[in-house]
Design brief:
mainly alpha, 14 helices, globular
Length: 325
Amino acid sequence: MQNTQETPPKASILPEKLFLVIKWVVFALIFIILFKTLQQKQESIDSLIREFRGIFFQENSYKLIFVILLIFLNWGFEAKKWQILARKIENITFVNAYQSVLIGLTLGFVSPANLGDFAGRLMKLKSKNRSEGIGSILLGNGIQFYVSILFGVIAYTIIFAKNISIFDQIIFCLLIFTLIFGIIVFTFRDKITLFLSNFQWIKRYENHLKALTEFDLREFRTVFFWSILRYLTFSLQFVIVLIIFQINIPLFELWAISCLVLLFKTIIPPINFLSDLGVREFSALHFFSLYSVQTSPVVTATFFLWSINILLPVIVGGFLFLKSK
């Protein structure tokens, strides 16, 4: 009797083996970059250890535990956003969305301009049309960007009494313009998409532009809601860390400065995650200089927040990427 079972072609094994090699190369690259990053920030690590010796007592231990718990909420809210945005392509579970976000964070860590984030998020999708997810990712990033601009305007309004520089006043005016421009784009998104489709070089990105028109007002509101929750979680983390490191200024103004640091991190595109850390430190020093705060605790607090919110999830995402199929 003839065997009817088909033997899978040997060629199909190659992509799997190739992917396995790529995974191990990327995994090794992640830890090489992490090691070099920590080497370059040795001074910040030493400062962090010295600061902890002075501030680590029982009262602060509860605050530190709360800050660490907020890490899961921070990336959990981002995962919820991605789960909602991915529905136009396929339904994914919250767990898969969470893993996708962490893998994207990891691949973004080892790629220029955070481009690996797109690949990481799309990896968990099984649909043949997963390329359409690029538009959904851009839409989610755009809404999060808008939220940062909105809270940046609020934060600037709070600290205007500190006689901020001409540079900051120009930034404030540009932020107001961006908010208005965002409302216009959202209101006329159908007409804008139709207009852009007339250009030949835009047509190749037509699948990505679909996300602007496929999501209705209710879905926009939902994504906007989760974006605000994520923003408030991160800014709360920052405030608590600054309090732990004994940066003593009025609480409301402390929150405003944390929003402005997040604003500059948002509007200055990072080359990689290390440059992102530099933007955080520079902007923090700029705004805290209005209050004559010592620079050492500010830099240390910024580095600590970056370490727990970026480095730790990147390591977890690295192991998830290694296990991915």
